[in-house]
Amino acid sequence: MIYQLVLQFDASSIEDFDRGIEIEDKIINALGNAHDVDGHDFGSGEMNIFIHTDEPKEAFKILKANVLPNFLKEVKAAFRELSSENYTVLWPEGYSGEFNIK
User: Fold this and answer.
1) 46-53 and 88-91 as β-strands: parallel, antiparallel, unpaired?
2) Bridge partner list, 4
3) pLDDT means over runs of 10, the chain (102 residues)
4) Which of 1, 31, 39, 69 has its CA 20 to 30 A from that of 21?
5) What is the CA radius of gyration of the chain?
6) 11-40 burial by CB neighbour count: b if 16+ within 10 A, else e?
7) H-assigned helices in the chain
8) What is the dihedral of CA 70, 16, 47, 75, to 10 degrees?
9) With the C-alpha atoms ordered 33, 57, 37, 29, is the resulting torsion angle positive or negative?
10) Which residues does residue 5 pair with via DSSP β-bridges, in sequence order?
């Protein structure tokens, strides 16, 4: 797998963490073996879920339709080549800010 897709949510409470874990479980089920959910991190006011994939746009398309419809206002999604530090933002559409992992 040559890309890392990151889904990022604002999160600061144990309830946010629990919700993030539920979302991560749904992501694992939705993506199957074609993409590898590589875990998560939680802290500094955010939760990130990491996915290794050869097709980040396709993976996000699957998640957008099947897992994230109720969370689209809350999520940022970006990907990078594993060998790079530069992210390309997929969501929200038209997002012009920087995408960072704290």
Assistant:
1) unpaired
2) 52, 80
3) 95 94 94 94 95 97 90 92 95 90 86
4) 1
5) 12
6) beeeebeebbeebbeebeebbeeebbbeeb
7) 14-31, 56-66
8) 20
9) negative
10) 51, 79
